[in-house]
Amino acid sequence: MQTHRKIFLADDDIDDRELFIEALSQPDISVMDFPNGKALLTYLTTAEEQSLPDMIFLDLNMPVMGGKECLRHIRSFKKFDDLPIIIYSTSSNNKEIEETFALGANLYVTKSSSYMSLKKTLEDIIRLDWAAHPPHHGLANFVYKLT
Hints:
By secondary structure, the protein is α/β, with parallel strands linked by helices. The protein has 5 helices and 6 strands.
């Protein structure tokens, strides 16, 4: 069983990033945050293997490079096939949800307005059996959570 988890978050809203990091504040979890998809993608493609995350949270609407474009690029690299990618957005638009599934997202979560709800949702996501939710293995394996 894994003892330390590395979580990456790409979100242009500094307040959302700070709240996310606070909600996951635990000794066995580290969060690295990025202001947009391009910064995340640059890091992923140049980082050493041991510096890669255990999962990524992507906001959809960001300047420079949004979540869908970033997701498309990440999934174009074979080495990231098994990396869980969670869309983390204020949007609950069905078309956007379906598009992210088609691009290879493992999970879609709408941002919560409640800190306690966010904390519980993130804890649930961390505990998920990610092997049971691979990307592109049918809509039944795609998880959508409205918080």
